[in-house]
Every structure is written in C-alpha cells, then in structure tokens.
Specification:
Helix content is about 40%, strand content about 20%. By secondary structure, it is an alpha/beta fold. An eight-stranded parallel sheet has the order 2-3-1-4-11-5-10-9, sandwiched between helices. It has a seven-stranded mixed sheet with strand order 13-14-12-15-18-17-16, sandwiched between helices. The chain has a three-stranded antiparallel sheet with strand order 6-7-8, with no helix packed on it. The protein starts with a strand and ends in a 6-residue tail after the last helix.
Amino acid sequence: MNPAIAIVADDLTGSGDTAVQFVRAGWSTHLSIGGADEALSGPATAGVEVLAVTTNSRALSAAEAAAVVRQNVQQLRAAGVSRLYKKVDSTLRGAFKAEIDAAREAWGPDTVAVICPAFPATGRTVEGGVLFVNGKPVTETSAATDPVTPVKESHIPTLLGCAHVAARDGDTPETLAERIRLAGHTVVVDAATEADLERLARAIGLLGVHALPVGAGGLAVPLARVWAGADQTAPVVVVVTSQHSAARAQAAALRASGADTWTPSLAQLADDAAWQSWSQPLVQAHAQAPAHAGTVLLLAPEGQLEGLDSETVAERLGALAAQLITTSRAAGVVATGGDGARSVLLALDARGIALVDEVMGGVPLGTLTGGTAAGLPVVTKAGGFGTEDVLVRAVRAIRDRRFKR
C-alpha cells in the first residue's frame, strides 16, 4: 500500500511538527529525514498512510528550491499519493513563493493552492492578508533579520502576487470554499483563531483533491481530522435510550444537525409484530441504499406503557442498531444510556472496548473488541452527562479519526 497523503516540508523540524498532527488523528505516519526518492524506497514506509518528506531547501535559491520541490511532488504523485500538504515556515522564511508555485504546478493543472501559515497556538495569525507574530507584522520581528533567509514582506498576497480571501462574519465551510474556488489558482486565506482554521480545513475538504493546502502545523491540526473522514460513505448509528432531560436535549441537537431520526411508539416497542412491522423497513432501506456519510438516530420514545420495561426498550433498540451497523457497514456507533450501550455491545457479540481517546471528559472513544463488528469505533455516554452538543461532537470524533478495521 502506497501512502495516501504526503507532507512536503522545507526542513526537518517543520516536517515533524506537521506530521505529528496526523498521528494524533489516527493516521499511520512516517517522518523521513530526506526527500521522496529516499523515503519511497525505504522499508520503513511499508503500509504507511502519511509520508512526510524533507527537501532541506530553506536556504536554497528560489530556482534551486523550486526544482527540488517540483521533483519531490512529481515523485509522490507518481507513487499514488492522492493528497498533498505543503508545509511552509510560519514566519515566511525560505523561498516561499518559488516552493508554493512549484508544488502547485507539479501537483496538476487544476490545482488551487490555499495558503494560510497561521498557527494561533504559537502566536501566528493571518489578518487582512498580513502575517502577525504575537501581534506584530512578521517584518517587525527577528524573522526580518534572519541571517540566511530574511523576511521582507508581511502581506502574503503581495509576496506571492495572488488573491486574498478575507475573514467574513457568518462564513461557513461551504461559503468559504466557494469564495476560494472563485478567487484563482493561488489564494491566501485569513485565520486568527483555531475556529478559523477549523472552518478553513473543512472548506479545503469540500474543495477535494484539487486543493493544495499550504501552511504550518496550525492548519495541519484540523486538516488531519477532516481528511480522516473525507472518504467515508457509511453512516454513524446513534442510539439514545435514556429518558434524562439532558439526553433528550442532546438528541434534539443531533436531529437539528441533520440526523435521520427514527422513534418508535411505546406500543410498537411493546408488541413483537408491531415492532417487526416498524423496524424491518428501516433495516431494508439501509441495506439497499445506506445513508451516504450521514447519521442515523434511534431515539427511544418518552413516557411509559404498562407492561413495557426499560430493559425491553434497550434490547429492542440495541438489536436494531446492531442490524443497521451490519447492513450499512456503519462507520461507528454512539450509545447514550448504560442499558442501551450494553444492549448494542451484546447484540454485536462484543467483549469490550479498546479505549483510544475521549470526546470530552467522561465520554470515552474506542473500538469494539471481539464479535461481529470488531474494530468498530464506539462512543458511550451516560444519559444525564455532557453538553448539549455532545452527540454532535461524538459523531464528529468518529468521523475525524482514522480507524483501522
């Protein structure tokens, strides 16, 4: 298996601080100290999904840097890499324009270079097209007097001779993607906060494989997660059996986000024939045409009915969730309510959960061990716990991480 993603950086430390963001998102990643030819021929990269290569070109002339970047990108493209991240210095040092132009041209004729070296966690922001470092234009910092590659221009669109997409109130990933698409083949985008970078990363995801993101470690953080879910075509199944008011509000928030919501009546849950009549069309519909990267919410009805206990409700919905997971080859499952979560795991013959992370404090993320869906991503949550958007975040946590099954 060849790498799916390549990172091309002008120096080793920058390559490392970008590559590690993909590790955190679950990608198997290899950091090479050399270029593409060395990295692709080495046994250490067998089975690697993300390959970070280093051109060691920061101190080269513009012509030399462009040549080495072009050669590396062409080699990676020929090796089957489908997505490229061009790592640049977060203070604009090096042959900044030459490397970006070379990477864009080598990647393909329809490529749009989307440039944002912002890294708010380290004080780097892009506002009005200007790169600021701890609130000062980069040309008013030590980067301006760098003995090897002094920075002479803070306004990135001027440095690159390209278009600029400014921050705009109310922008969504969709509107931002459209503005970038219309701006040209090389576009600088503002970002002053982590939320700005998240929106930009999701816009890049919408632009698809023709987008060439160019940035530092900051943009790599959300982009590694966005690309983890970019190729998913299966639904996430969410089961809510808890009657707690917090769980009901969380389910409402998930439904408002677009989840395909199914709620049986108490009478349908209480009667075998009625239950089969209600549930089987749902299973058959997803077997024939599973939701495309959507969310299916199975929500227990509110209230009580004589002769219907909570255990039966959990068993019914847990078994139905297991059927949907199997027929749709689901991307993951989220279960709210201890009885519901246990019922889902039992219906899948799972032995337990291998924990890998948490969505938020007290809401673990892991993969099923044993059973018919071993390796399936799973989030479990107590009914009365979590913020109103926790189910939305749980679904995104499954989407935004690379899992091996």
